[in-house]
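Q: Hi! New to this. If I give you a protein sequence and the SMILES for nicotinamide-adenine-dinucleotide, can you show me the bound structure?
A: Yes, paste them in.
Q: Okay, here:
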Amino acid sequence: MNTVAVDLGARSYQVRIGSGLIARAGAEIAPLLRRKRVAIVTDATVAALHLPALQTALEAAGIASAALALPAGEATKGWPNLARCTEWLLEQKVERRDVVLALGGGVIGDLVGFSAAILRRGVRFVQLPTTLLAQVDSSVGGKTGINTAQGKNLVGAFHQPSLVLADIGVLESLPVRDLLSGYGEVVKYGLLGDAAFFDWLETNGPALKAGDTAARLRAVTRSVEMKAGIVSRDETEEGERALLNLGHTFCHALEKATGYSDRLLHGEGVAIGCALAFELSSRLGLCSQEEPSRVRAHLAAMGMKVDIADIPGDLPRADALTALMGQDKKVVDGQLRFILARGIGQAFVADAVPPDAVRAVLTDALAGR
Ligand SMILES: NC(=O)c1ccc[n+]([C@@H]2O[C@H](COP(=O)([O-])OP(=O)(O)OC[C@H]3O[C@@H](n4cnc5c(N)ncnc54)[C@H](O)[C@@H]3O)[C@@H](O)[C@H]2O)c1
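A: Thanks. Here is the predicted structure of the protein with nicotinamide-adenine-dinucleotide bound:
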């Protein structure tokens, strides 16, 4: 088992990564509890697969639990289920000093974390991420929230978990499409700040995909180390944390254009967005043409979506996609802000990227369809 510390003064916490962590959840969580009772929120798919093991582990440590299973999928991350979750926690008489457990992927982690943030003005919560995406990204760093009709993640709060237990064993039940979606975020870490990690992924990505535990442990740990470091230095995204949004401005526009549907999973959009960000960087003369080619080659070798052309169904034209970016949280004073790169592992925040250059990249990407 590996442990990564997220260093945030009084709100510091640990991320534990390893196989069999759900089975030891009782012992891991017990030190946080003032009374031996927790409320668990999960989704229906994860409940069927992993909730019994969690409840058994808690019981073995003398911890009573009640559980709520919400529907699985991105559509759950909205107002109706936020209300349902929060009111259920109140019905369970969760008090200020209690701990809520979020068992699931990024949807459950974001929604339950936000619910914990607003419940009685803030109760503690533990993340038990069950997707690769949630283990390497969404469970760490305290960003919580929901989607609204106006866009993704526009309503939320910074609320750090008290502990993160990333059991890489549960990834075995994850469909390969979801695994690869999470891998999009893993690749992002190499691309944004660790060229040696990207080299390692080029060699070891296929083993990771095939289920190699050591490769998964290393990839999750390195990703969490990178995220923890950035979050510790810039919790509320005044500067460096924005680098984690590499690929995300394109991704959010594509997700909006596809209605947050099964046509495009979040991590798939991140992977395509990273390839587009490198393409844009190369066209702006910031990096060589070989860099976007290398990014795309690795995504293709992993069997991932690489291009806009890989998204099924119709998409809006380049102008309309660019307009969708205007709604992005990264927009400052109406200026499009992108994360661009001077090479693999060398991302930086670029303010005032020329919209024409963005449109040109999108026009060519759409023409490839
Ligand atoms: N808070 C952050 O910093 C942050 C960062 C990145 C992404 N996100 C958010 O994360 C969300 C996406 O997360 P996700 O990709 O984990 O999606 P998800 O939570 O919808 O999970 C994907 C699917 O996998 C199923 N699943 C989960 N664990 C499983 C397992 N072990 N075995 C089998 N099936 C399992 C789920 O039921 C779901 O159907 C988006 O809403 C995105 O905005 C948040």
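A: The CA atoms of residues 39 and 89 lie 7 Å apart. Let me know if you'd like me to explain how to read the tokens.
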